[in-house]
Design brief:
single chain, about 190 residues, alpha+beta, Aminopeptidase, seven-stranded mixed sheet, globular, GNAT_dom, transferase, GNAT family N-acetyltransferase
Length: about 190
């Protein structure tokens, strides 16, 4: 089996004032919280956004595993819609010590390069900072963090840094080389 050296960068914001919001994109783009836990919808977003950039860790999750995850207090999915069509999403997860991780963030391939990503990331980071306002018993957020890697889109790191995230850790690890699963075979233009 061949391997691939993958660099993972971890970034953080340590105060709400660190967030540098992007301007909203032109057109009818809305960001809406998916309030009803839906394994089918969440798996669709995960596979559709990450299919060409090698997101594989959740592909084997059962319906029950998805539901268990989505029903946890402090887990939220925020979806960007372009004229009513899902364009991308951001998943937040409350962690110990008043920390919120942006676990997943990205756009479906057809919506990349249209200024939706900066807006969605801004919106998602703002919702990470006010997560405790929506969940009784959660401590107000003191830190928001995320990670990106060398397999992600070419503009990912720049978008994170332009939104005010600061690098705090870098790791390089060998990973098995896999074929991008895509949401289905042949879904992406060559």
């Amino acid at each position: 089996m061949t391997t691939l050296a993958v660099t993972t960068w971890s970034l953080e914001q340590t105060a709400p004032t660190d967030l540098l919001p992007a301007a909203p994109p032109d057109g009818d783009v809305r960001v809406v919280r998916s309030e009803v836990p839906s394994p089918e919808f969440s798996r669709f977003l995960y596979a559709s956004v990450g299919g060409d950039i090698l997101w594989t860790d959740r592909l084997s999750w059962s319906y029950a595993r998805w539901l268990e995850h989505l029903e946890r207090p402090g887990v939220e999915t925020w979806v960007a819609y372009d004229r009513g069509t899902p364009a991308g999403y951001v998943e937040l997860e409350a962690q110990d010590d008043a920390v919120v991780e942006i676990v997943y963030f990205g756009l479906l391939p057809a919506f990349r390069g249209r200024r939706i990503g900066g807006h969605l990331l801004s919106y998602g980071a703002a919702r990470a900072w006010d997560l405790a306002d929506r969940w009784a018993g959660l401590t107000p957020t003191k830190r928001v963090w995320l990670h990106t890697c060398s397999k992600d889109g070419e503009h990912a790191m720049d978008n994170y840094q332009r939104r005010g995230f600061k690098l705090f850790d870098t790791k390089v690890e060998e990973e098995p080389e896999v074929t991008a699963p895509g949401p289905w075979p042949g879904a992406f233009p060559v």
